């Protein structure tokens, strides 16, 4: 293969972008078609505006970020969407858009906005043969599909652990001495400040089972982070924000959002279960468990807590240390039950870690291949490709 099969074109020669359509939430009629905003799906409607697959890029808000779904959809006016692929392979176009950093073409100072007329003239080299476009896209999508499968497995593992925790420590249906569910089998319940609890359990404060390591946190500005090598994860209140060249923590910890994004719509805390070497800014509390209680048990307990009573601030929400530590919890005085539960769920958390580490490698491979495949630096041998991709999918 030679670059004779690649051609210099303008983006507007490959595809045509259109501006999305306004759809206030009050006008959404629940249906099967996703409504796509600049950050992804924001609702569902009974009408669609796009072709299938639907590819959008953020027009305002999260500017330039591409999304693809294999359905017709309603493209919101915070997006640009493709209404004509001009006989090009859609998945190839999606990965091509990921390499273009379209946010740099945004105009406006107060509210940056992406104009399709500013990106249609972008010049780039692309393969003209549809088979090569498919081959490139298939390599990248196979990696993404494997990542998604791992994510789904991890979500199932977490849901199962969460359900078991709720059954034992919220519904009080832990196994009694005969192996039967405690409360529904007539187990004795006693009054407490939090309502009826099993005999032999007590109400305590969260501070009795957590250690806070907030004093080790150090915030780094975006400018400071850009000067550092990308080696160790750098976490904020709600998510992984960046990578830096050093670390503050080493081990398994729970990060709990301290300010800004601190709770979900159903008043649960914003949590991150993290391990290895990493850095944390000053917008997330850093927690470990104590009293021989496993970090996995603590994570599941926090996932079940209504944190709203610990939140202060009307505009900028915050959970301070004092309020966090004073949150009330219910636990058995005999920690053997907690130990028994932890032994059941610990393997699931180990599997969770293994799959996450595998995803890190898959993402590194994908992100390394993406610009090289899209620039033609790496060419795809079309023969034998399908067999190779099947091996990747099979793990």
TrEMBL record:
Gene3D superfamilies: DNA methylase specificity domains (3.90.220.20). One of its GO terms (biological process) is DNA restriction-modification system. It comes from the Bacteria. It comes from Alkalibacterium pelagium. Belongs to the type-I restriction system S methylase family. It holds the Pfam family Methylase_S. This is Type I restriction enzyme, S subunit. Keywords: DNA-binding, Restriction system. The keyword DNA-binding applies. Residues 4-159, 198-335 form the Type I restriction modification DNA specificity domain. InterPro entries: Restrct_endonuc_typeI_TRD, Restrct_endonuc_typeI_TRD_sf, Type-I_RS_S_subunit. The keyword DNA-binding applies. GO terms for molecular function: DNA binding.
């Amino acid at each position: 293969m030679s670059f004779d099969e690649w051609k210099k074109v303008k983006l507007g020669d490959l595809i045509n972008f259109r501006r999305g359509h306004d759809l206030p939430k009050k006008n959404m009629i629940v249906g099967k078609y996703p409504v796509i905003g600049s950050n992804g799906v924001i609702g569902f409607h009974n009408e669609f505006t796009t072709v299938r697959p639907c590819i959008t890029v953020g027009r305002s808000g999260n500017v330039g970020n591409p999304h693809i779904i294999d359905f017709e959809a309603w493209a919101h006016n915070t997006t640009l969407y493709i209404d004509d692929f001009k006989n090009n392979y859609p998945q190839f176009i999606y990965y091509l858009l990921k390499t273009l950093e379209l946010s740099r073409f945004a105009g406006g100072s107060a509210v940056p906005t992406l104009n399709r007329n500013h990106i249609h003239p972008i010049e780039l080299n692309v393969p003209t043969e549809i088979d090569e476009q498919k081959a490139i896209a298939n390599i990248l999508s196979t990696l993404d599909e494997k990542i998604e499968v791992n994510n789904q497995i991890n979500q199932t593992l977490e849901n199962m652990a969460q359900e078991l925790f709720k059954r034992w420590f919220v519904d009080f249906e832990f196994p009694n001495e005969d192996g039967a569910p405690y409360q529904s089998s007539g187990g004795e319940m006693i009054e407490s400040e939090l309502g009826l609890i099993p005999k032999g359990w007590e109400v305590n404060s969260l501070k009795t089972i957590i250690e806070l390591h907030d004093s080790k946190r150090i915030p780094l500005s975006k400018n400071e982070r850009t000067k550092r090598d990308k080696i160790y994860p750098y976490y904020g209140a709600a998510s992984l924000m960046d990578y830096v060249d050093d670390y503050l923590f080493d081990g398994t910890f729970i990060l709990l959002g301290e300010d800004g994004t601190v709770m979900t719509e159903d008043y649960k805390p914003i949590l991150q279960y993290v391990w290895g070497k990493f850095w944390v800014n000053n917008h997330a509390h850093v927690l470990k468990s104590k009293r021989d209680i496993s970090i996995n048990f603590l994570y599941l307990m926090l996932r079940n807590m209504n944190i709203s009573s610990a939140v202060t601030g009307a505009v900028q929400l915050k959970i301070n240390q004092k309020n966090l530590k004073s949150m009330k919890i219910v636990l058995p005085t005999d920690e053997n039950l907690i130990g028994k539960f932890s032994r059941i769920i610990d393997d699931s958390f180990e599997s969770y870690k293994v799959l996450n580490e595998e995803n890190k490698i898959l993402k590194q491979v994908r992100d390394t291949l993406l610009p090289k495949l899209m620039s033609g630096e790496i060419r795809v041998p079309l023969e034998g490709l399908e067999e190779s991709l099947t091996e990747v999918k099979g793990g």
